[in-house]
Each structure stands twice: as structure tokens, then as C-alpha cells.
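Exercise 7b. C-alpha cells:
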């Protein structure tokens, strides 16, 4: 799942590092409207795309970048996605909020406001982790990310945490070493 200002094209370089996978991929383009679409609304759209592509029960792995990781997590925890999610890999997703979202008002920027530290959505997600505990989770982040500030706020409260050796948010999906590490994780059985 892509981030706020991205489309599925943000994963093009990563796809080249993955080569030929033996499983189908879904790369949905969701209308996040520059952060105006609430996270829960985006998660409902993601749910519809997943069901259309894979049916209602096929186990899946999820990969979310930036806001896309919080959207995927919302689907997992609040919309029953945990029943079919095997692995969840999150990259630079503000699971504990980000200082860069703090100044944005809920209207009209509901999606960005959902990423504020202490937002109602993040309190709900972090308040009950039981649906994440049965899923293999891994968080990748940058210690000096200028979008998720501070960078350590981009880790899930469960699972492995891996800092990538990059300086900026876009480098997480563009830097050669970062892409190699992400591809290795995605190729794991």
C-alpha cells in the first residue's frame, strides 16, 4: 500500500529487486487526496480491493509504506484483516504519530490528522494489539526521517524493528541498500 503523495508506482524500483515472485501481487492505487481521505475510509477501500483480487479468505502478506502502513494496519486491526494476514511489513509508517502532522486541522485534512501523535485512531490501534500478535510483523524505519518525526515513531508496537541506513523518507524506497534489505524480507517464505 502506497503513501499519501504516492501511487503504486512508488514500488517500481522495489519490484525490480524482487524479480519473479511465485505469488500474485496487488498494487492498489487508492485516492488518498493529499491526506484529506480519513484513514478508516482508505482502509475500507483497501479491504474492497483485497477481496476483489483474492476473495474473502486467501491468506495474504501486506506491505505498507508511510501512510499506507497505517491504512493496512487499520484494515488488519479494525476490519477483520487479521484473520487472513500472515505477515505485515511496514516501512516508515507513523504508528505512533508524527510531529509533521500536528499542525494540520481535521477539516479538511482528516487523513493527516489521523497521524497526529495521540490521535483517536492511533490510540485505538495502539490500545489493543491482540489482533497483531498472531501476525509476523516487521517495521523498517529511518532514524533521521523528516516525514515521520522522530523516526523511531515509525515502528509497530510488536514484531521486529529494523533501521535502514538512509537519511530521507523517499530514500527508503530508492536507496540501493534499502531496496536490497526490503527485497530480502519480502522474499522470505
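Sequence design result:
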Amino acid at each position: 500500500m502506497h503513501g499519501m503523495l504516492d501511487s503504486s508506482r512508488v514500488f517500481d524500483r522495489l519490484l525490480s529487486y524482487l524479480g519473479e515472485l511465485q505469488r500474485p501481487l496487488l498494487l492498489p492505487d487508492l485516492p488518498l487526496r493529499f491526506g484529506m481521505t480519513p484513514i478508516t475510509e482508505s482502509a475500507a477501500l483497501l479491504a474492497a480491493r483485497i477481496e476483489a483480487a483474492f476473495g474473502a479468505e486467501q491468506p495474504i502478506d501486506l506491505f505498507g509504506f508511510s501512510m499506507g502502513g497505517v491504512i493496512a494496519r487499520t484494515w488488519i486491526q479494525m476490519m477483520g484483516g487479521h484473520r487472513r494476514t500472515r505477515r505485515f511489513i511496514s516501512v516508515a509508517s507513523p504508528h505512533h504519530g508524527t510531529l509533521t502532522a500536528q499542525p494540520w486541522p481535521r477539516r479538511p485534512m482528516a487523513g493527516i490528522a489521523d497521524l497526529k501523535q495521540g490521535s483517536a485512531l492511533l490510540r485505538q490501534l495502539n490500545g489493543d494489539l491482540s489482533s497483531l500478535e498472531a501476525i509476523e510483523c516487521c517495521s523498517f524505519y529511518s532514524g533521521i526521517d523528516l516525514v515521520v518525526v522522530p523516526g523511531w515513531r515509525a515502528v509497530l508496537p510488536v514484531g521486529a524493528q529494523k533501521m535502514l541506513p538512509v537519511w530521507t523518507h523517499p530514500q527508503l524506497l530508492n536507496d540501493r541498500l534499502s531496496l536490497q534489505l526490503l527485497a530480502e524480507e519480502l522474499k522470505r517464505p
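Instructor comment: Residues 45 and 99 are 27 Å apart (CA to CA). The two ends are 20 Å apart (CA to CA).
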